[in-house]
Design a protein that fits this description.
about 260 residues; mainly alpha; 9 helices
């Protein structure tokens, strides 16, 4: 019960901050997202500890800062450019330093890129439309809350026990339904009900995938939470794991489909 109370209090205090920055403006929201990305990558570096060298840690934090900066000033083209440069740099270093250990490879090339690159799409969503960014945030929160509540109270069918034993089919379906309802009822998007439902469905599926990936990462690193800064949630990565894939999924959907084009 104490953990549930902490989760609610953290959500009630954190959500308004995100919403204030969201409607404050594009740059304030981008600055907040940048801070969150750096904190998420920093948490991973702390978990790795002595398993990675200091220069890997520092280079990871630099990369974590470059991704959102590229998104702010150059949009998705800048973001893709930094991704290309990051991967190319790592390949060159891998050829020069042949004694890089696998934890360092995972942190520098995989985990850091996964968090920094994908989560920076929140900035691109806000630049496209504050309304679509709001829709993704609300749908993701709805998915998390209802999946947790329904799964905890009514869940019986465990779907991925080896990765996350508490994930149930009932919880996933409840979260999916909540995400779709948020898009249909609470968000004033200038789209047909079918398209809004499609976005809600995409958010739910992506949020669940992001949550499972983070669960797998924590099992690999043998930790329960990514950090302790957010009572009831653990760390920043625990709180934002669902948005890591939901934000880019919706951004590329509306970009490639032209649904939000004026």
């Amino acid at each position: 019960m104490y953990a549930i109370k902490d989760r609610v209090l953290t959500a009630l205090s954190g959500a308004p901050i995100l919403l204030i920055f969201l409607f404050w403006g594009r740059l304030p929201f981008a600055a907040l997202c940048s801070m969150v990305i750096i904190l998420c990558v920093g948490e991973i570096a702390i978990i790795y500890g002595s398993r990675i060298k200091k220069w890997h840690r520092y280079s990871g934090l630099i990369a974590a800062a470059l991704y959102p900066l590229a998104a702010i000033f150059y949009g998705y083209r800048g973001l893709l450019t930094i991704l290309y440069a990051h991967v190319l740099t790592f390949i060159i270093l891998l050829m020069i330093y042949r004694n890089l250990r696998s934890p360092e490879i995972m942190y520098t090339a995989l985990i850091n890129t996964y968090v920094s690159f994908f989560l920076s799409h929140l900035i691109l969503l806000r630049a496209s439309s504050a309304t679509i960014a709001l829709a993704v945030l609300l749908a993701t929160w709805a998915f998390d809350i209802f999946a947790y509540f329904i799964g905890s109270n009514f869940g019986a069918i465990r779907v991925v026990p080896k990765i996350s034993p508490n994930k149930t089919l009932e919880g996933m379906l409840g979260g999916l339904g909540a995400a779709v309802m948020v898009l249909l009822v609470l968000t004033p998007l200038p789209l047909s009900p079918l398209r809004r439902a499609a976005i809600g469905f995409l958010v739910a599926v992506s949020a669940q995938a992001g949550d499972l990936i983070e669960s797998k990462l924590k099992r690999f690193l043998k930790v329960k939470d990514s950090g302790t800064l957010l009572p009831g949630h653990g760390g920043f990565l625990d709180r934002f794991d669902s948005l890591i894939l939901a934000a880019p999924a919706v951004f590329y959907l509306i970009t490639l489909s032209g649904w939000m084009a004026k």
